[in-house]
Amino acid sequence: MQETTDLVELESVEKSISIIDLIFTGSLAGQIIIGVLFLLLIVAIYIYFERLFAIKEASRVDANFMNQIKDHVSKGKIDSAQLLCAQANTPVSRLIIKGISRIGKPLEDINTAIENAGRLEIYGLEKNVSVLATISGAAPMIGFLGTVIGMILSIFEIANSGGQIDIKLLADGLYTAMTTTVGGLIVGIIAYIAYNHLVVKTNKVVYQMEANSVEFLDHLNEPV
């Protein structure tokens, strides 16, 4: 009866092993790979929140902004319109101020100036976002590298066991194989979701910029 109780307790202890224990139980190579994946996760999270807040700030445009701009332009108050854009200091306002500075030139020149400024704004919004895409693709591959290393270690132990397999050493290789795979997939999935979310948010800001630019150009093209 006592032996049965001891076995149940032993199974309970074995089943309660944590992820941290699995990581430190694995080989040194596995721990290094997990460390690299953890660093990639930190980088991905930092870039995501930094860009998210930046894009959120860039998307803030006063609902009456364009009405005020059109009113100033119609009345010839170019300086007031430029001052309003400078105070707003958003991607939309920076595009509009670029167009305002070209007022008096052909409409095609104004449109070209706005488009060039728009490319720079989009580049700024997408800063470091490509790193997330790289992490989302690289993390699973790094995890699979750990899997291969773990399997090699396990096969090496089997080949050199001389008929007496050391379960502890064999398990170390399997732990490395499994934990690095899971770690790589987790980091890759998080980075992939973060990347796509930022792309959607960026596209909304780009659409906002295009819509306001078209509205501004249409206003300039209206007959006096």
Features:
84% helix, 2 domains, 224 residues, mainly alpha, membrane
Characterise the protein shown here.
With 224 residues, the protein is mostly helical. The protein has two domains: 36-57 and 129-209; 61-126 and 214-221, no CATH class. Helix content is 84%, strand content 0%. It is built from nine helices and no strands. It has helices spanning 2-15, 19-25, 28-58, 65-74, 78-88, 91-100, 107-125, 129-159, 167-221. 30% of the residues are buried. The model is unreliable at 4-15 (pLDDT under 50).
Briefly characterize the structure.
This protein is an all-alpha fold. 84% of the residues lie in helices and 0% in strands.
The count of DSSP E runs of length 2 or more, i.e. the number of strands, is: 0
Shape: rod-shaped
Q: Round the mean pLDDT to the nearest integer and report it.
A: 80
Report the end-to-end length measured between terminal Cα atoms.
100 Å
How many distinct folded domains? 2
| Percent of sequence in beta strands | under 5%
Structural class: mainly alpha
Membrane topology: Multi-pass membrane protein
Domain MotA/TolQ/ExbB proton channel: 88-210
Organism: Paucihalobacter ruber
Keywords: Cell membrane, Membrane, Protein transport, Transmembrane, Transmembrane helix, Transport
Describe the protein's topology:
Elements: H1 2-15, H2 19-25, H3 28-58, H4 65-74, H5 78-88, H6 91-100, H7 107-125, H8 129-159, H9 167-221
Helix pairs in contact: 2-9, 3-8, 3-9, 4-5, 5-6, 6-7, 6-9, 7-9, 8-9
